[in-house]
What does this fold into?
Amino acid sequence: MRYGEDNVLATSRRSTPAHSDSGPFARLDVTDAGALAQIVEQQRIEVIYHLAAILSAVGEDNPQLAWAVNMNGLYNVLEVSRRFQVAQVFWPSSIAVFGPGAPRERTPQETIMRPTTVYGVTKVAGELLCDYYVRRYALDVRGVRYPGVISSGAPPGGGTTDYAVEMFYAAVESRPYTCFVREDTVLPMMYMPDCIKAALDLMSAERSALRHHNSFNVAAMSFSAGELAQAVRAHITDFVCEFRPDHRQAIADTWPRSIDDSAARTQWKWAPQFDLHAMTADMLEKLRAGKHVD
Ligand code: SER
It folds into this structure.
């Protein structure tokens, strides 16, 4: 590990997180500003990766909770970082900042951002709040707009892009899968190793080279749900996938199909390593080896 295991404190709301055995751990709810401040002060935290959020589908079920966690949580992190001179903060934004008014193909870094989900609203507001802390307090806040995240280590967490992960779990368990978006639904996606690479590359970039700080478009691959099923079927020939769109289709239909990430490529040399086929092969290998978290 880059920083040494003992130098990274993992936190979670749950008392038994998946990775608690790999280094220091503290239980923490980011909406509890007092507890957050206590940990940052006592542990002399220098860099914060603030990843806690309510995703798009769960957010639509409970918009009040989405606002409380996504906005108050971010505010607490920014405030504690300002008060205790935290050197750097990473906070992920999302392709969900874009709404029906934005171009859907190669969506530009800077374009109309009028999202229609509460999750998207909190991400746009969060980007602006982070920009404010950069400008007003010179806090070094950085972030990328993640596309759908595909991971063999973390189960899907209530997003609109969850089908892309669920499909793999079904396939390795020899189950048929009912996909909740149409077969021709195209969304941008990224494999977890590239998500981590993006965060670490951005955080170690020269500050003076960055113009956007906390809202970089990053792209790795774009594919339709049908193409993903095909890619899985190339390895597991009898995998059965049917498509029955539910309410999440309407969210997917307002998001980009592909992303223009030239700002990230120019300013901090962003380059992903996994395309659809490399990701599919690696996902299946990892899940079959039983490395995933139940
Ligand atoms: N994967 C997220 C979601 O579907 C997008 O940021 O909500």
